[in-house]
Amino acid sequence: MPSSRTRLRPWLEQKIESKSIPGLTWGNKMFAIPWKHAARHGWEMDTDARIFMQWAVHTGKFKPGVTEPDPKTWKANFRSALNSLPDIKQVKDKSINKGSQAIRVYRMLEEVPKKKGTQPCLYKKPKTTHKRKIKARIALCILFFPFKLTFIMDLTCSTAPVS
């Protein structure tokens, strides 16, 4: 993934404003994306999958002339990226799912501000499993009570003198 890549919302806003993609329309904080099914008669990759291809090129998932075109994957990746945004929601009752004029309509909500000073977590602490807890308690009991140990059902240790 390129380090200087524009995020999806600003990239999409720029595409909408430039009117470079036929069928990508804007109105009243909503936009429509052409969503024609590839099995439809008259489907063409250059027009019907243009936005998906441009997003794939932008993200580095497709390199024209180097990798094979895969519009099905481009569309799935674009849909996933779009659906993961908290400030863009699909308007299902305005979308047209079938036919040669199929579109998906989305509404742009107010941008969700990022928390200041937070860094992404690079290391996640593994979840403590029940077995790890038991082993840790046994190790502590052995460390602090070097004489005979008896374990009670709730896994707390009690000491008993060595006989």
Automatic annotation (TrEMBL):
Transmembrane segments annotated in the record for this chain: 134-153
Record's keyword terms, sorted: Activator, DNA-binding, Isopeptide bond, Membrane, Nucleus, Transcription, Transcription regulation, Transmembrane, Transmembrane helix, Ubl conjugation
Chief place of localization: nucleus
UniProt cross-references to SUPFAM superfamilies, sorted A to Z: Winged helix' DNA-binding domain
A GO-annotated cellular component: nucleus
Record domain IRF tryptophan pentad repeat: where: 5-110
Record-linked InterPro entries: Interferon_reg_fact_DNA-bd_dom, WH-like_DNA-bd_sf, WH_DNA-bd_sf
GO BP terms, alphabetized: immune system process
MF annotations from Gene Ontology: DNA-binding transcription factor activity, RNA polymerase II-specific; RNA polymerase II cis-regulatory region sequence-specific DNA binding
Location in or out of the cell: Nucleus
PROSITE patterns for the chain: IRF_2 (PS51507)
Name under which the protein is recorded: Interferon regulatory factor 1
Species, as recorded: Scleropages formosus
Gene that produces this protein: IRF1
